[in-house]
Design a protein that fits this description.
The protein is α+β, with helices and mostly antiparallel strands. The protein has helices at about 10-20, 50-65, 75-90, 95-115, 160, 175-185, 205-215, 370-380, and strands at about 1-5, 25-35, 70, 120-125, 130, 140, 165, 220, 230, 260-265, 270-275, 280-285, 285-290, 300-305, 315-325, 330-335, 340, 345-350, 355-360, 365.
Amino acid sequence: MKVLAAMSGGVDSAVAAARAVEAGHDVVGVHLALSRMPGTLRTGSRGCCTIEDSMDAQRAANIVGIPYYVWDFSERFKADVVDDFIAEYSAGRTPNPCMRCNERIKFAALLEKALALGFDAVCTGHYASIVMDADGNHELHRASAWAKDQSYVLGVLTTEQLAHAMFPLGATPSKAEVRAEAAERGFSVANKPDSHDICFIPDGDTRGWLAERVGAEAGDILDRDGAKLGEHEGAHAYTVGQRRGLHIGRPASDGKPRFVLEVRPKENVVVVGPKAALAITEIAGSRFTWAGQPPESPETPFDCDVQIRAHADPVPARAFVMSDAAGRHELVITPFAPLNGVAAGQTAVVYVGTRVLGQTTIDRTVSAVPVEDAVTAQAR
């Protein structure tokens, strides 16, 4: 096959490209330039896709002996990832920019261009596996090493995208083995730290970065009954589950700490309450997709596992697609045990065994503690 290897400049994508070559594929390496402005992306272990990273990727491509190019995706990245991040926070939601990048850049924009140029597949260094079912359909599964599994951030992939994706590291037992292989191959990135955090916020100050773009206007901090407890300096700076930095003058009647339960940007209000109210018994979202073949009857409740963060443990649940009279559809997920601190905007990925069945962006949640119960508890 003719394969386009997405090379971020890290050890994983370098080894993945090398393995694709050894598997007999005709491989071309490409690095995605996501910003035209130096200093707007993090470097080293604090991000990816910088000039430094592009040079690391080129050195690895030279050793493997494959053609190498840098493609400018900066405009698409700004529109589909950065602007989306700002819009989601402005709406009071908590987005996952890495999920959006995989969805809209690496497996939409990149794959679209690759197919147009005659490539058969895009290869990345993600730890996940693609297998074929008995009918020849592509399925996305967890990697063999669960500690490094990255199937969660790939949950946004569609059936068509899975048919043109390649993950050579999926069966690798550990990251240590990948680093050892990189060293044997002579890759300078063998011991390069993993990237993390948000790549387009150079100094890591998400609160300050958002304040410059969204604005910071003082507003009220309320309890679940609507009583004013204090003031904040900008609702965008708060996330569901946050405890510190609330600066509420008077303590709760029971003496226990309060947590952020909800952010309402249109009203410029932050709602706080007891920790018990962070327990969520139902999540739902209308922006859902299936990774491969959908359930035979998605309107019928089915057992599954749900994962709401990249490094969270999966939780047994039941899910189904609910439709209303207006033709709107919503994936509703009910965990068997309450989830903690779930925020609108997060992604819920649904698994059946090791298989990624699909995902949804969370639009709404249902707390285990109704408002009246929380108010009564705080009044005691």
